[in-house]
Design a protein that fits this description.
Layout lengths: L12 E3 H10 L3 H9 L3 H9 L2 E3 L3 H8 L5 H12 L9
Antiparallel strand pairs: 1-2
Helix pairs in contact: 1-5
Length: 91
């Protein structure tokens, strides 16, 4: 029988808590928080109060350049983050 690989599409929007949970799993949350702390106050407020993270947000793209992440890495982060659920139920 042939093996079928199912590729999950990259979500355009994820919840902020999902994004932060995935950063935590990758041991990147503290570094990301330090980066956010260096932003101008206006952007810090926006980031701290946002409930969602958009994959195509220019501010996110600019901040992530500091980490030297490839587009593929960021896509993988969004896919993995979208799997975080509020319950322990499997997908």
């Amino acid at each position: 029988m042939a093996t079928v690989t199912i590729t999950r599409p990259v979500p355009l929007v994820i919840a902020m808590w999902q994004f932060r949970a995935e950063l935590k799993e990758r041991s990147l949350l503290a570094a990301f928080d330090i980066l956010v702390a260096t932003l101008p106050d206006r952007y810090k407020i926006i980031w701290d109060r946002s409930e969602i993270v958009r994959r195509d947000a220019p501010a996110l793209t600019g901040m992530l350049a500091s980490f030297e992440w490839s587009t593929e890495y960021l896509d993988g982060l969004f896919v993995a983050a979208s799997r975080h659920k509020l319950t322990d139920e499997a997908e």
